[in-house]
């Protein structure tokens, strides 16, 4: 399987969001996000990567944020790799009466504090960067070893342009806009976004340009177009789920 950068692979069987495997220290693997659900395809892709590159266990599941298209498959992924530590931003966790952190029905192993721009070192070559805004617990992960930044939904990557999530899809858009400049201060030149295309070069420059652009006011025609697109997307997903359930 061809890596997208040294020690980083995109798992193409994933559905819902981009899912990546990244080599961390001691030849171990981390998985970034899970998508809606885990299929046999994803598990065999991970097995293939481990075999071809002589890598050990999956020891981390790195959650960029709590939206369902990113964590829907978390329980199943953890079932396959029970030794993996689940990493989530504090504000995306729910705490029970014993102060145990959860995301959905999954117990969180490492809770990352959520102050804007705070860097939490997870391993020698892997850092989490807190970027509240899209959700209040959003994290980017930076692999120094590979020179890749995993952005989650902080960036949407179209074929020839970077874009921001729509304002109403962010929990706090003012903080979100700020988070772009903060990310530009830490990012690497290669970026692996939560949706769309991998950015192979000039990410820092392009991100800085995007961060400097003011939000445009949406005109009613554009708003109508976007809402229609979202409805069509939901209908399509529902139809696919029905078909999958039938077989
Ligand atoms: Zn999201």
């Amino acid at each position: 399987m061809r890596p997208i950068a040294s020690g980083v692979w995109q798992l193409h069987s994933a559905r819902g969001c981009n899912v990546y495997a990244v080599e961390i220290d001691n030849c171990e693997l981390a998985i970034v996000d899970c998508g809606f659900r885990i299929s046999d395809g994803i598990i065999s892709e991970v097995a293939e990567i481990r075999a071809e590159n002589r890598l050990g266990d999956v020891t981390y599941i790195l959650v960029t944020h709590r939206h369902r298209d990113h964590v829907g498959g978390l329980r199943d992924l953890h079932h396959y790799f029970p030794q993996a530590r689940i990493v989530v931003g504090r504000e995306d966790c729910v705490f029970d009466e014993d102060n145990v952190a959860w995301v959905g029905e999954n117990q969180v192993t490492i809770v990352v504090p959520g102050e804007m721009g705070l860097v939490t070192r997870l391993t020698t070559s892997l850092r989490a960067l807190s970027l509240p805004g899209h959700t209040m617990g959003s994290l980017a992960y930076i692999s120094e070893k590979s020179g890749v930044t995993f952005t989650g939904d902080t960036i949407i990557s179209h074929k020839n342009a970077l874009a921001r999530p729509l304002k109403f899809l962010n929990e706090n858009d003012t903080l979100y806009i700020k988070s772009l400049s903060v990310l530009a201060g830490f990012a690497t030149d290669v970026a692996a976004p939560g949706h769309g295309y991998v950015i192979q070069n000039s990410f820092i420059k392009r991100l800085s340009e995007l961060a400097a652009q003011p939000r445009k006011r949406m005109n009613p025609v554009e708003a109508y177009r976007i809402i229609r697109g979202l409805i069509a997307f939901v209908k399509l997903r529902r139809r696919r789920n029905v078909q999958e359930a039938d077989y």
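DSSP finds six helices and 15 strands in the chain. The radius of gyration is 18 Å.
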